[in-house]
């Protein structure tokens, strides 16, 4: 069973990964964006860490909803509302249970990823975070490790794609040949689940 402490570890591990990889995320956002994805994510996840520390929400759902609200109010850009929606909707789907199963997390995360697709209008193959998140949710039933590998693979597979959503889509064919920064940060978020589980 996964309790609030597990979800706090997930967010803390995600914040650490974003910190470690901030420069790389910004570098990826340079040729096909505006070179701010690393700093956006860093600002957001630092705020998440501080708020979770201060408010210590008691349930998995409350942890993710609070984290999502923080991301919406601090990240900005396209990715802030999208990541915020992902965590808020996932948290809402978890309800107010004190502990949830891995299966419940999988179902909730699917609800969250669906909300991201509705909000941003992106489908798999559009070269966005969705390309890492959808395969991750599909593999999550197997294990956290499988989900992390699928997200990483999905992020790598964005390189040959032409962007159809977000800032990178303005480049048309020139977006081809670059890995999507948001898919890359999504892979970090999913990899942080493995760390939280201590696997
Ligand atoms: P901005 O593009 O506003 O500068 P960021 O640089 O923080 O925001 O985030 C860019 C990332 O957001 C992209 O790499 C992509 O993965 C994701 N993104 C942008 N638009 C969409 C969308 N409509 N749906 C899903 N993801 C999107
Ligand atoms: Mg950007």
Summarize the structure.
The protein is mostly helical and 199 residues long.
Q: What do these coordinates show?
A:
Residues 5-195 form the DhaL domain. One of its GO terms (molecular function) is phosphoenolpyruvate-glycerone phosphotransferase activity. InterPro entries: DhaK_L_YcgS, DhaL_dom, DhaL_dom_sf, Dihydroxyacetone_Kinase. Its EC number is 2.7.1.121. This is Dihydroxyacetone kinase subunit DhaL. The chain has helices at 4-28, 37-55, 60-74, 79-94, 102-120, 130-140, 144-156, 181-197; strands spanning 2-3, 99-100. It has 199 residues and is an all-alpha fold. It has a single domain, classed as Serine Threonine Protein Phosphatase 5, Tetratricopeptide repeat (Alpha Horseshoe), CATH 1.25.40.340. The protein has a two-stranded antiparallel ribbon. Helix 5 (102-120) packs antiparallel against helix 6. The longest helix is centred in the N-terminal third of the chain and has 25 residues, at 4-28. The two termini are 14 Å apart. The mean pLDDT is 97. Magnesium ion binds at residues 29, 33-34, 36-37, 77, 167.
């Amino acid at each position: 069973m996964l309790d609030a402490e597990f979800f706090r570890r997930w967010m803390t591990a995600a914040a650490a990964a974003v910190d470690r990889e901030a420069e790389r995320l910004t570098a990826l956002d340079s040729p096909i964006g505006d070179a701010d994805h690393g700093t956006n994510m860093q600002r957001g996840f630092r705020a998440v860490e501080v708020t979770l520390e201060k408010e210590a929400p008691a349930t998995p759902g409350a942890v993710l909803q609070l984290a999502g609200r923080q991301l919406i109010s601090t990240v900005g850009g396209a990715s802030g509302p999208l990541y915020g929606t992902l965590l808020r909707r996932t948290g809402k789907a978890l309800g107010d249970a004190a502990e949830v199963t891995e299966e419940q997390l999988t179902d909730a995360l699917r609800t969250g990823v669906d909300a991201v697709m509705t909000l941003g209008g992106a489908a798999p193959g559009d070269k966005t975070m969705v390309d890492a998140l959808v395969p991750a949710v599909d593999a999550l039933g197997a294990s956290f490790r499988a989900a992390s590998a699928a997200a990483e693979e999905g992020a790598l597979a964005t390189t040959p794609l032409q962007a159809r959503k977000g800032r990178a889509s303005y480049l048309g064919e020139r977006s081809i040949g670059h890995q999507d920064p948001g898919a890359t940060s999504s892979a970090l978020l999913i990899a942080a689940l493995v760390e939280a589980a201590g696997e």
